[in-house]
Structure formats: structure tokens, C-alpha cells
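Page header: ASSEMBLY MODEL / two components / 352 residues total.
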Amino acid sequence: MEYYPLPQPEEIPEREKEDAMGAYLMMFAAVAIGLPLPVINLIAAIVYFYLNKSKSRFVYFHSLQSLLSQIPTTLINWALVIWSLNIFFTDRIISDEFIAYAIVAGIANIFYFIFSLIAAFKARKGKMYYFLLFGKLSYGIVFKVKENEMGTIENKPPF
Amino acid sequence: MTFEIKRQESNSRGELLLRTFFGFFYIGIPHAFLMFFASLWGSILTFISFWTILFTGRYPESYFEYNLGLMRWSARVNASFFNMIDGYPAFGTSSSHPDVLVDIPYPENLSRGTLLLKFFLGIFYVLLPHGICLFFLALASNLVLFISWWAVLFTGKFPASLHEFLLGYLRWNFRVNAYMSYMTDKYPPFSLS
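Prediction written out in full:
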């Protein structure tokens, strides 16, 4: 399996570093437009990904990693919002299970926030930063040399 | 900083009437619909830019270009509604109009102190004084717009002095907007020119 070489910080233009950094800051999109819905951040990350993926592999990688890492957080937050609304509009009794879930969701968000900020700072310096699972996945998608990109191989060796 | 709308040699009376009676439907609604979403995106980028300037002292270049494109788009639509240009204003942040020239030189570095000043006290030292001036200018602009409408209808030309006044009004708005969007550190002057 072949991979494209990773760009080094000094080779990456300032503009691309800023664009890569911006991908992680899409987690603030909901705050920016004043609509505290978890899905806003995901929509912003999707829009950002499609606007930036053609710029360079470095920007493509960070945009994709940011987008993929946002999916579980969005699902966790949505579940919390729906559960909260359900409690508010029905019996209004907060169960222990709900409290436990809210704590887990809170911790997940704090972790996501911290790691995204670290990734944003690294991207600003032109460095790669790999999240657990999503890092490898994004690297594979962005940097793997696809067969059709190598052109048609007409002549082959004898063995 | 450049904000120019070239005065046309002659204005079309047919387009003037079309814009007056149906402009809301064929220019206003489609542009407002798309600009709403484009502005939402712009506000997200501005929010991120705020933090980026605070930490790095730089406005991300691609965000700057997007927001400038948004201002150019808005200038085209305004110029069209003010009957200053003929033709349908182009959609999008990367489009342009030969008679509408809007530009802000990209600042390599922005002051963090000014950024915080704008954020916390901008309403008092920018929006309030400029807002008062712009409010009276807006009233005057409506009158000027009315007079220029009749002038264009009868003569087919936009009077130069009225054109200058409306251009000055739009330019003033633009400069305040650019300053408050953190795109420049230069305080907007109280001037039409």
C-alpha cells in the first residue's frame, strides 16, 4: 500500500495552516450564530470540509478528521437534547440514568473540546495530529495512493 | 480601502421601472434568500477570526476574502437598489461587477488591543456615534433616492452630485462594517468621501 509523502511544516503555506486550523474551530459554529443546537456544528464542519477539501492534502486531512470526530459528539449531544425535552414535556422527573448520561456526555464534550483545540494549535503550526481512530481513518482516505491516480499500467515486469 | 461605484454614462429607464415595481421579487427575494445563508457562514468565520486574531494577530486570509466577497455582493445589490447601476447584480462572493469596486487591503497583522476594544466598547465609540450619523444620512438618502429616480426617468442620467451623496452613504456604511468585522484597525472617518 502506497501513501503520499506527508508535507512538512516549512513546506505548508501560512494560508493552508490557517484553513486547517479553522476546521477544528467549527465546533464553535453554534455559538457563533447563537443557535445552541448540536447539529449546527456538524453542518458547519460538513460545509467547511466541502469548501476546503480541494485546497491541499494537509487541509483535506484536518477538515476530514474534524468532521469525522464531530459525528459521535453530535450524536451524544442530540440524544441528551431529546432526552431532556422528553423529561421536560412529560413527567419532569430526572432519573439517575439521565444524570449519569449527562455526566458522560459532559466529559465526552470536554475531551472533544480539549483535543480539538490541541489539533487546531498543531494545524496552525503546520503539524499533523492524529485523533484516536479518526486520525488513522482520515490519513488512509487522504494520503493513500489510489490505483486510478497512478494511471493505467500497460507494461508489467515478467515476474 | 476602496469603495467606488462608477457613474454610468446613461441609465436605462426601462430597467429603472422594472426594478421599482418588480425589483423586490426578482432581485430582493432571491438575493436575500442566498445572502441569509452566506451571511450565517460569514458570521461563523468572523467569530472564528476573532479568536484567531486574539491568539495569532492575523485574520485568516481565506476568511478575509470570503467576508470581503460578501461585502462586494452586498454593495452590488445596494447599488442596484439605489439605481446606480443597471443590469442584474451577480450572485456569489466571488463574482464582480465592472462598475462596483470594493476592496480592503489584507492586513498582515491586526492589533489585539484594538480587537478587544472593538468587542467590548465598539458599541459606544463606533456604533453609537456612527449610527446616529448614518440614521440621518439614511433619511437624507431616501429623499435623494426619490429625486434621483425622477431625474433618471426624465433625463436617463443619474445626477452626479446625487450619485456622490449615495455613494458616500454606502461607503460610510461599508467602512463601519469593515471596522466592526475586525477587517481593519483604521477607525472609520466621519466623512462621505
